[in-house]
Amino acid sequence: MRRLTRAPNTAIAQIWVDLLCEGGYPATVQRQFLSGVAGSLPPDQCLPEIWLLHDEHETAAQTLLSELARVPQRRWVCHACGEEIEGGFEQCWGCGALMAPSD
Ligand SMILES: [Zn+2]
Q1: Is 84 helix (H, G, I), strand (E, B) or coil?
Q2: pLDDT tens-digit profile of 9-49?
Q3: Residues 6 and 56 both lie in one domain
Q4: Same domain, yes or no: 31 and 43
Q5: CA 10–ligand 1 middle distance (angstroms)
Q6: 61 and 77 co-located in one domain
Q7: How much distance in Å is there from the Cα of 53 to the middle of ligand 1?
Q8: Which residue segment(s) compose the domain that 35 sits in?
Q9: From CA 70, how far away is CA 68, in angstroms rounded?
Q10: Cα of 9 to ligand 1 centre, how many Å?
């Protein structure tokens, strides 16, 4: 097992893990629990981490994620929380809302 990266929230983490698995790089989401402060922070303060099952996939998996973030190039602002989203995501990583249809 090797930690690949940290995701902004669990929804994004699950999307990344699904893509990694589809790409042939088995991965799982692991919650990072902050020791000693359980109960004093909202759950979304414990950022999910992406862990690869096989260490040797690290380079290829990072390439896959970086390509995911780069293509297509676009930027939008979440209608629900105002978060600015970059890259190929159609879901807000601030609140999880889906991108509104272009008007
Ligand atoms: Zn949002």
Answers
A1: strand
A2: 888 889 899 999 999 999 999 986 554 455 555 555 568 89
A3: yes
A4: yes
A5: 14
A6: no
A7: 31
A8: 2-69
A9: 6
A10: 11
